[in-house]
Every structure is written in structure tokens, then in C-alpha cells.
Design a protein that fits this description.
Layout (H helix, E strand, L loop, with lengths): L3 E2 L27 E7 L3 H17 L3 E7 L4 H10 L6 E4 L3 H6 L7 H6 L10 H5 L2 E2 L2 E2 L2 E7 L1 E5 H6 L11 H10 L16 H9 L19 H15 L6 H7 L3 H6 L5 E4 L4 H6 L6 E4 L11 E8 L6 H12 L1 H8 L5 E2 L4 H8 L8 H7 L12 H17 L4 H16 L1
Parallel strand pairs: 2-3
Antiparallel strand pairs: 1-3, 4-11, 5-6, 7-11, 7-12, 8-9, 8-10
Amino acid sequence: MKKLFALGISMMALTVLSACGNGESSKDSDGKTVVTMSIAGSTSENKIRKETAEEFMKKNPDISIEWVDLGDSRYEKTLTLISGGNAPDILYVNEWTTALAEKGALLPLDDLIEKDKDFSKEEYYENLLAGNEYDGKLYAIPQEVSPFVIYYNKEMFDAAGVEYPKNNWTQEEFLEVAEKLTNENEKQYGFLLENGYNPTLGWLYRQGAQLYKTNAMKESAMNSTEALKGLEILNQITEKKISPNPAELTASGQGADAMFRNGQTAMISAGMWFIPPFTDEALNFDWDVVQMPKAENQKVTAGILNWGISKDTKNKDAAWKVLKYFIGEEGQKKIAGTGMALPSMKTDAVNNVVREIEKPQNIEAFINSAENTNMDGYLNPRSTEIQDQFQQEVEKMLISDQSPKDTQNKIVKAMNEILE
């Protein structure tokens, strides 16, 4: 992708990126207010953003949207733009809201929301909005969320004589099923565990573990028996060869999607992002999804896309108008119809569009999981540092003889040093 996108020659005009940071409102040659907006993702994702922008501009001919492509290094590129005084008016924010808010890079949205009688926070999942709050203010609003669920190969279940899982299945049932579907001699795995912060943290949350002892987030709560149980389960999954460990997965040169497509694993955990590739280039077997197995609770983590407004924008009102369209019903329905992610609105008006998707059959598993999404892993401005330490220690446990207890102690020590 190019670094700057134009959404239709007649509707868009190039402006110099540095105009975002100067003291004047950006205008194009036709006198339209130019709102710059960062973009990241696959070709299909970007296509949706462009189509949404085109629809907005048809309804609002006085505003022109232009894109700044973040490429693969989204967070790093965003920081570079901000530090150079070239932040786009609207920022594409994954899970970095609190980190950017602490840096003073984002505009608090509370006043804009309070003045806008057409906007209601009540239409959005409260837990997702809470993940974008810092120091009592809201700094970004999600457009989409993709809770983790289990994808499973029905034909492998049939061959093993195992019943298909149901949304209310338990963690014990999951482990039993995964063992039955594992065949070490055939290099067939019952489940593929990826050592990412999001998927592994979910296993701890479901045991009842919490990251922080208080809302102040000054001390780790990962020294609990619940956190240890979660780490023991992760370790058990690789020790029993239910899943390849991270080193084996790297050596295979394949990701979860490829191993699932090739029939090398019966189950994987992921968000909705696998639905488009699994339907566009159809799998040669029947498959479905199911909610993550329940332990003490059925909490999950999720991928999320938030939009925020730059603190330095000179086009605050126009930027809010654009942002509100993307996160509003029109923008949400564009997302809902793709199967790429869930809308962050919890209304039937948008979720009924999701329910019309033909595959997977149990699409309700995603909708059911949305309210169980826990975004605590990203509430602290030091979350990226905590994530790095968490993943490093879990990986040592999964590929070496580092015990779950030692792993827990090292995570707690590293977190408390970061939080000091």
C-alpha cells in the first residue's frame, strides 16, 4: 500500500501532511475541510474504510477525508507522526489508547459527546468504552471488536467420534476433547496455542485472575492462585503435546490459519478475522466456531479497533463528525456485513447484520462473547512493556523447564518494576 490514499479523484485532493500540525485549518483547493485519518490493515480492511469514507463524503460534501497509511509498524509509525508534529486528525488506535492519552497525544472526547445530542454511549459495550478511559476521561471509541473463540474442524471431530462442542462447554471438556484429537505420531494436534498476550491472558482471566490489585494499577495481582492455575493449564497444553510449543510452531514456518487449513490442528483460537479468508478461499472441510471454554467464568480477550482524535487537530468539529460516522450505525453496518469483526455497538440494528452471515453457523458465539471481553491488559499506559515481559516469561515456560510457579514469580516481579 502507498503511504497516502486518495478516495476518488473528484472527491479527494492531496494536502501536505505537515498541514495537520500547523496553526490553520486544512482546506483543499475547493475550500473543503480536509480531515486526515490514519489507516492500517489488509487490503480488504482498507477497502471497507475507503467505502465508508466515500459514503460519508457524499453526505457531507464540505469535508474531504485523506488517508495516512501506518503500514505494518502501526504503533511505532503513530508515535513518529505525533513526535514530528504530523499527527493525523483522526488516529487509528488498536489497544494503545491509554499510552497515547498519557503522552498527551489524544483529545478527550467527553465534551464533544456531551454537546452532541445525536450520540449515545449507551449503545456501545460498556466494557469496551472502559478500556479507552484514562484518568476519568474517554479518549477513543471502538468501531469494531473481535473476541477470541475456538474454531474447530468438524471432520476431525467426526473421525475421532467426538461430539461437537457447545457454547456452554467447560475447560475440563475442552482438555479432554483436545487430547482425544491429538495424534503425536501423525503430527496432528488437538489445539494450537499461540503465545500472544491476548490469547494467553484469556486463559488466566477465565480462572478468575486479575492483572492489578486495585484500580490505581500500581501493583500486580498476578501472584494469585488463580493466575498460577492459568499458567499451569497453558503449560499442560504443550507438555501433553496437545499443541506445539512456540519453538516448534516457529520451526514449522506456519501460522494458526495455515495449520488449521491443512488439517494439522483440530482447533485454534482467534477472533473473526479468519472468517473472510476461510470463506473467500473455502476450506475443504466443514468447520464452525464455539465460545471459549468456561472455567470460573467465560471471559475472553479481543482484538479491537478504536478511533481517537489528535490533541493537535485544527479540525476538531469536522474530525468528530467523521469519527462519529465511522463508529455510528452506518459505519458499523459496513463492518458487520463483512464478517471481519463485530460492531462495537450492541444494538440489534447492527448485530442482526452479523447474524445474516452464512458461515460460521454458530456466529452467535462471537456476539455472546462481546460482553465478556476483558480489556484490562491494555488499561495501563505501560501495557506494551508489561506485554513484552509477560510473553517472554510464558514462552520460557512453554519451551523450557521453567515452571509455572517460577514464571508467575518473574511476571509479578517484572510487572511491579514497570509499575513503580
